[in-house]
Amino acid sequence: MKLRIALCGALLIVANAYAEERSSGLDWLEVAAFAGHQTDYSGVFVYQYGNHVETSNIVHINDAGGEYEKLESLDGPKREIIRHDGQVWSYINHQMVQIDSQQGHSRFPFLLPEQLSALNTNYQAKLLGQERVAGYNAQVILFQPKDNLRYTHKVWVHTDSGLLLKASVLGDKNQVAEQYAFTQLQIGGKIDRSWGGRCDLVDVHGKDSSNPPKSVKGITPTNSGWVADMLPVGFKKTMEILRSMHGKDAPVVQIVYSDGLSAISIFVEPNDGDEDDVDGLSSRGAVNLYHKVLNQYLITVVGEVPPHTVMQVVDSVRYNGK
Amino acid sequence: MKQEISALMDGELFEDDAGKVLDQLKRDSTTRKNWAAYHLIGDVLRQPDHIHSDLSAKIRERMRDEPALLVPRSNMANQKMRMFALSAVASLSAVGVVVWMSLQISPELAPQAAMHAANTQIQPSSENYLIAHEEFSPSTDMNGSASYIRTVSYGSDEAAPKKTPSEKQAK
Which of A205, A230, A262 is a domain's end point? Predict the structure, then answer.
């Protein structure tokens, strides 16, 4: 009898520790998402996939004016992305072009509770101890999927600030599909704003008001009637919108599904016979994209999921409306 | 036994099974020969460039040492037939082993090859989909703008300039 009680006790302790580990893995993620928005930082990070490596500079400021972010490539041709709250500008052909705008789309709160619970059912979180990244101490957390329809994610979170210092997406046999890692990072303190910061953006705003880009008309929620029957378990629809897209004349339907860590977007638009949109599968790092013509529509599926998952989804897209 | 030997080579045997095979290897010379042959086959399959064995010289030498047989012709032909049949069986089983070995090896190589075949880089013309996707992806919450680097990342086959809508309309 005594033995049995002892056994039960041991089991309870194990179960408890297990639950604790799971929840603390999620806690870390929540902290990282929060810190990523709230903290001022600037640094240099390396992005790597396959045998491709490139270095970029990033500055992030969150003040009374909102959240500003500037990403600048340091290798190869000059590329720049500026984000201000829900708006995105890109440096294309030697000029800044607004490529995305979500009027009224609030960036807060991030990682909604339902997202976290989805994450909990689709992945197993494991704390892997501490490592040093870019000179900072980091907690390593592994998110292992419960099926082979998604990637394994490994993140390194700064133990003090909660900033994400490194992130790996692991595919089959734990091969790295893609990886981000800071090589140099300044957290808080005096962030160098000489890159223009808001001035730069005011400039962009100014240009916008005198010559508003045609492509930006915002986003309207919709019920398009398009459905995908073969989404992996745990992917929940987070939005369905009718949007304008840079480089497209007609509005595009975008349906987004998420399992908490990665997302799958389905785009549906009238097929304009543009030969640029190569039929079939293509990829960049952990992101896979599939174009397919269905009747007179062009279906595009994009996601941070393995190629076979994207193909499975694209083949199950159908129109279920009137 | 042959199967156990190859399982041992691949490290797929449990400890007690492996012990049995190793015992057999110590006692039985045929098993030892098989063990050596499998390793040779494995080496050849893995690194065909590094194995040079010029057999022709050896064969010529052996042929020279063969006694000239003086026997009636018909008998000789019969024997030859039998020899041929035997050697055919032997080479068939050798092919069998090689095929079987390569099957053992190929499952590791095949998915990689398949992945490379599917690994077409995303075209710059499709980057707008990436940007539209990134904005709603949880990875953007985590990585901030860093995940946008995917949308503007450059590759060797992305030298083509981006088309602007006006250029498209002009076409």
Answer: A205
Take residue A111 and report the two structure tokens written for it: 């990682």
B28: pLDDT confidence band, cut at 50, 70 and 90? Answer: confident
Q: Say how many Å lie between the first and final Cα of chain A, rounded.
A: 67
Q: What is the pLDDT of residues A175-199, one digit of tens each?
A: 899 999 999 999 987 776 655 444 4
Q: Is A85 on the interface with B (CB under 8 A)?
A: no
State the total domains in chain A: 2
- Mutation site for B-interface testing, chosen from A110, A284, A304 by largest number of B Cβ within 10 Å: A284
What is the token pair recorded at A209?
A: 């008001």
CA distances for B119 relative to A50, A179, A284, B9, B80, angstroms = 10, 17, 8, 33, 54
Q: Chain B partners of A36 at a C-beta cutoff of 8 Å?
A: 141-144
**CA-based Rg of chain A, rounded to a whole angstrom?**
22
Minimum-distance CB partner of A285 among B111, B150, B154: B150
What the block records as the tokens of A52 is 């491709």
Domain assignment of residue A210, yes or no: no
Q: Are residues A65 and A150 located together in one domain of the fold?
A: yes
Contact A263 B133 (CB under 8 A): yes
- The pTM of this model reads 0.64
For residue range B5-15, what is the model confidence (pLDDT) as tens digits? 888 887 788 88
**pLDDT digits over A24-51, tens only?**
888 888 888 888 888 899 999 999 988 8
Enter the DSSP assignment of B121: B
Maximum alpha-carbon separation in chain A: 83
Domain that holds residue A95: 2-205
Half-sphere exposure at residue B63, Cβ-oriented, CA atoms within 13 angstroms: 6
Q: What is the ipTM of this complex?
A: 0.79
| Residues of B at the A interface, defined by Cβ within 8 angstroms | 111, 115, 118-123, 125-126, 128-133, 135-139, 141-155, 161-165, 168
Chain B interface includes A93 (CB < 8 A) = yes
